[in-house]
Amino acid sequence: MTPIAEVEGRRLTLSNLEKVLYPATGTTKGEVLHYYAATAAEPLLAHLRDRPVSFLRYPDGPDGQRFFTKNPPPGTPSWVRITPVPHHDNEEAGQIVVGDLASLMWAANLVVEFHTPQWRAGAPGLADRLVFDLDPGAPATAVECCEVALWLRERLAADGLEAYGKTSGSKGLHLLVPLEPTPSARVSAYAKGLAVQAERELPDLVVHRMRRALRPRKVFVDFSQNAAAKTTATPYTLRAGAEPTVSAPVTWAEIQECRSPGDLVFLAGDMAERLARYGDLLGPLNEPDRGRSIPDTA
Asked: Which ranges of 35-122 does DSSP label H, i.e. alpha helix?
């Protein structure tokens, strides 16, 4: 019998709860739903609030089919919020906004990664966050990403901007900066300028171009996710991999003290203790009046 759950007055059908989604740890779909409901819901919802969501779906686990979608899936309940996000080829397009626990659990039941843009519903292309995705090219690892993150933190601070870090949930790091609402194109130009400067000052460590032939042994400072059409893994989302890794906020002390890639790998089972110890390290991103303006040039 397919379980029916009531969440905030909404009836949800939860399917295949015993299905193993993460083979390396034997983590089941039921355990994934428990993580989202009991551990991550409060901080995750704060970071999803008012942001159109894109889903990376992997219903058969990370070794099965994966597909990325911005469109509301077939069968989306009428009570799930959909916000207009016009595209150049579809002026009537819309995307889901996950604004409450019922919507979160409905989406999690589809087995998804949550990805969000740097802008909010109703203000597409007006970013209130800047993001850098630090992606290591083997044999570089998260250790080298941490070195680059520390350089970027100081460079951003010189412009009056405060950076916060999280793991990508894969190999690298994400840096996020709260901004006054700023056109995405201007944020992208500023971020690109810093990436170019990082490559110039750390030539043996950093590359700012995406071409894979340039990336071995270096950290790719990806500024492109600041474009209005791009998205980044939302804080606290699970990622599709062998283990249930989390895109987890980290302290600057953890970044500074990282000596091994495993130092910054966090699983779903680690997050309750981390939240109890630190709270939401990225909470300031959601605080009113926290955002600052970027300079005209990098």
From this structure: 41-48, 101-108
In this prediction, residue 296 carries a pLDDT of: 82
- pTM value is 0.95
Residue 211 has pLDDT above 90, yes or no: no
**Averaged pLDDT for residues 35-60:** 97
Please compute the mean of the pLDDT values over residues 152-171 and round it to a whole number: 97
Among candidate residues 83, 213, 72, the one with its CA nearest the CA of residue 137: 213
Fold of 126-290: Alpha-Beta Plaits (3.30.70)
> Nearest CA to 236 among 250, 255, 215, 226?
250
Tokens linked to 298: 């990098």
pLDDT at 89: 72
Domain 4-116 has CATH 3.30.1330.40: no
